[in-house]
Design goal:
254 residues, alpha+beta, PH-domain like, 9 strands
Length: 254
């Protein structure tokens, strides 16, 4: 017992973390209880303190975060697996929710890539056209582009040169000018949706663009731009589910 007070378990903690990480990543969700039981037995056999076991679990958590971030494809079983795993690790609920949201997006994208889009229940609160099928919907904000012009009192480089004591010569441009700035302003909250016939937004301010009138789409950060034939400026939507939206449109065009 006296020896245990001074022993260094770092190598064993690393082994614990490696075994637990591999068990989580290599086995199915149904095997997770036995994977964690094996890890618990290992910690007990090596007389881990609570602090040492938690240290090993934190290493595992960092390994899993890296795996999730680097993974392009995740399955629905992966979601069920990590949902169980996160409850066994030292995590706050908001951190669990954020990671599960990321995993959920990747599982949906993987399913679309492997199986194509599938029809979903109409959750838009509006009637679809006859025989129209809903493939995608997500919370979104309708954005308007707003331009504002500001007066700038001094434009360009200015300075002064000392000519003599108490005498200075001013150089540079000091004429006032105007600067135009563009900003994106939310004007409505609702849902963006994609059907087999069109892409649109439903809220207080609705719009839809038939695919026959759709020129192109583009994205920048969380903003999605929808260019319609005959319309000068694009519709702008902000959503956190751009990757799923893009994958849905790609699958429909394939």
């Amino acid at each position: 017992m006296f020896f245990n007070l001074f022993k260094n378990n770092d190598a064993l903690i690393e082994e614990y973390a490696k075994n637990l990480t591999n068990g989580i990543l290599q086995k199915s969700s149904a095997s997770m209880p036995s994977v964690f039981q094996n890890a618990k037995n290992f910690a007990k056999e090596n007389e881990f303190s609570y602090k040492e076991e938690n240290k090993g679990k934190n290493i595992v958590l960092n390994n899993l975060k890296t795996f999730i971030s680097d993974s392009f494809e995740l399955s629905y079983d992966d979601y069920a697996k990590f949902e169980y795993v996160f409850k066994q690790l030292p995590m706050f609920q908001n951190e669990i929710n954020e990671l599960l949201a990321t995993i959920n997006k990747k599982t949906i994208i993987t399913n679309i890539r492997q199986n194509g889009v599938s029809e979903k229940v109409n959750d838009l609160g509006i009637n679809l056209r006859r025989n129209e099928k809903l493939y995608y919907s997500a919370p979104a904000r309708y954005i308007k582009e707003q331009k504002s012009t500001k007066r700038v009192n001094y434009d360009g480089f200015t300075g002064s040169i000392k000519i003599a004591k108490g005498v200075k010569y001013r150089i540079g441009t000091i004429s006032p000018s105007r600067v135009t700035e563009t900003s994106f302003v939310p004007v409505d909250t609702g849902k963006i949706y994609v059907t087999d016939k069109r892409i649109g937004f439903v809220g207080n301010k609705n719009f839809s663009v038939d695919f026959s009138k759709l020129l192109k789409t583009a994205q920048s950060e969380n903003y999605f731009f929808i260019f319609k034939d005959g319309r000068e400026s694009p519709y702008i939507i902000e959503t956190n589910e751009l990757l799923i939206l893009e994958e849905t449109l790609k699958s429909m065009q394939a």
